[in-house]
Amino acid sequence: EHELIKTTVPKAKELRRVIEPLITLAKEDNVAKRRLAFARLRSKEAVSKLFGELGPRYRERPGGYVRILKCGYRAGDRAPMAYVELVDRPVVDIDDMDDDDDE
User: Fold this and answer.
1) Model confidence, pTM
2) Residue 67, pLDDT above cutoff 90
3) What DSSP string runs through 21-45?
4) Cα 24–chain centre separation
5) How many CA atoms lie within 13 Å of 28's alpha carbon, on the beta-carbon side?
6) Residue 72 in contact with residue 81, Cβ under 8 Å?
7) Fold (CATH) for 4-102
């Protein structure tokens, strides 16, 4: 659903282990692979995004779909934090967003 999240480093590493095979599965769209993805995700919306957007976006990429960027420590318990983001993510232009607010 989200292409950038902030979480702890151990959770980020585990998330990468789950996400990468799913995106590899979504490179080729057929019913059997959609069912395998649904068995893992349990969300029709997530499977639709996986096969509709992410699979075609990473079709030519051999792997390494997720980037983990460390961003310091959490204030409460000093747990190491990191951003998990999909590489080659579409960038939203901030100037376009500001124009809508001015009206």
Assistant:
1) 0.82
2) yes
3) HHHHHTTS--HHHHHHHHHHH--HH
4) 13
5) 3
6) yes
7) 50s Ribosomal Protein L17; Chain: A, (3.90.1030)
